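Before relying on records like the one below, remember that each one covers exactly one chain. Contacts with other chains, cofactors or solvent are not represented anywhere in the record.
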Amino acid sequence: MFPSYLKICESEEIEKRIEKLKDVLKDCVLCPHQCHVNRLAGEKGKCRGGANARISSAAPHFGEESPLVGRFGSGTIFLSQCNLGCLFCQNYDISHYDSGIDVSAEEISYHMLALQKAGCHNINFVTPTHYIPEIVEAIMIACRRGLKIPIVYNCGGYENVEILELLDGIIDIYMPDAKFYDDKIAAKYTNAKDYSKHMKESLIEMHRQVGDLKINKDGIAERGLLVRHLVMPGMMEDSKRILKFISDKISSDTYVNVMGQYRPCHRANEFAEINRYPKRSEIEEVKRYAEKFGLKRGL
């Protein structure tokens, strides 16, 4: 199976998409915050992103899901800043404090090709939502210079579906978080008080584009949807509602990684209820519900 972007990069369609996406930066609505700032003129919205993408690192990564890592790793490009602002973020130095350097699309494409040369099985853009125009331009440049491994869109799940539609045929693997079902919880711990609605709409659109996760004979993911859900302390009921939604509205064959590695980070100590690790019994309960709803892939 060949990456989907190979076909679109051969046509003028990719350049039309890039033009549309760059035009959005003049009145930014890349994500559901709809900040309407002119990023090309230096204005900043909730994500604090500018006209150029800012990256923190680019390297093979072996801590992702096994279908992404394989033998030689996932070629991760960590982007700085974020549109969610989770108060418990484990990467808060990158997402909240903006560490990293501003780069051009040309420079991003260089990193992509270097990761491919290193043997990585994919290019994994971590927190890409607020830098979609630059990323798509980098994909076009890298593709025309020999890139031929899948693109992973590794996001927080708070997406603008109209923007996602412009990624159809470009992204091979969508890997969104499905954090919260209850918007009261989202409003308390993130800056996305309407997270649930947009997360659900986004997962449906992502699945429409790429379908269930396809893994080749070597155990490497080639295309499809992979959903992550982080088990939060004391929030099993919310987890169950997310899993039921995925099974009922997306597919019971969805690859869902129920993650138990939450730990109190950043400002979690300000909230007693999340200032602890989840209990093993809580994690196992969520996994049992995933199985009950038929979501066995990824467990």
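The mean pLDDT is 96.
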